[in-house]
Amino acid sequence: MTTSTKHLLAQDLQRIPELVPEIRFSAEMLPRFREQRAKEVVMGNPADYQVERREVFIPAENGPDVRCLLYLPQAQSGAGYLHIHGGGYIIGSAEGSDLQNLGLAAKLGIVILSVDYRLAPEHPIPAPLDDCYTALGWLHQQAAELGVDPERIAVGGESAGGGLAAALAIHSRDRGEYAICHQHLTYPMLEI
Fold first, then answer.
1. Is the pTM of this model over 0.70?
2. How far apart are CA 61 and CA 64, in angstroms?
3. 117 Cβ partners below 8 Å, 6+ apart?
4. CA proximity to 81, closest of 169, 153, 182, 159
5. pLDDT grade, residue 126 (50/70/90)?
């Protein structure tokens, strides 16, 4: 049974949900949906932004290597940002945020590490959080080589990525290994 929350929107916004097609996810359709979304991703040209983009694979303690995209701007400010993509925990990739990350790296001069975390339902929590924590650890461990001040590393993301970033900040605080100076949560998926 689905309960409508349309009444919670401002009157002038109540038509918006009607314009978005409803998608019913299933185990059978999810791989095809992911594949189609991956084909729609637009990657930027790093040279246009004066940013170098690298694919990195980070060895994980309790799982497969964590794949990430690393963005290194020519003019660096000394800050680092761990980016976590959105997608409802079931879709999305680091590539899906490429244009955004190229622009942020160039404009702010920050080194960005974008995590391609494992997706649900195949990989339930804590797998995605573990991947993000592994990436955060790598960013701290490689800080000197990357020109990043370890006291100036932030985390953030959109939707599911924002939810994971919030969980990561709490997890990092509780473990006491890696400092986070800032969280940037964009419409995070949080339980309230």
1. yes
2. 8
3. 66, 84, 85, 127, 128, 131, 132, 164
4. 153
5. very high
pLDDT band at residue 5, thresholds of 50, 70 and 90? confident
The single-letter code of the amino acid at 96 is G
- Stretch (H or E) spanning 23: none
Q: Which residues contact residue 188 at a Cβ distance below 8 angstroms, ignoring those fewer than 6 apart?
A: 157, 158, 159, 161, 162, 163, 165, 166
All residues at 6 or more sequence positions from 97 whose CB lies less than 8 Å from its CB, including other chains: 83, 85, 114, 158
> Residues 37-66: what's their mean pLDDT?
95
User: Tokens in use for 186?
Assistant: 């964009």
pLDDT tens-digit map of 149-158: 999 999 999 9
Q: Name residues whose C-beta falls within 8 Å of residue 162's C-beta, 6 or more positions apart in sequence.
A: 84, 86, 156, 185, 186, 187, 188, 189, 190
Cα–Cα dist 125/86, whole Å: 15
pLDDT reported for residue 116: 98
- Chain-centroid distance, C-alpha 44: 17
Taking phi first (over 0 means left), then psi (-120 to 50 degrees means alpha), and beta for anything else, what does residue 56 get?
beta
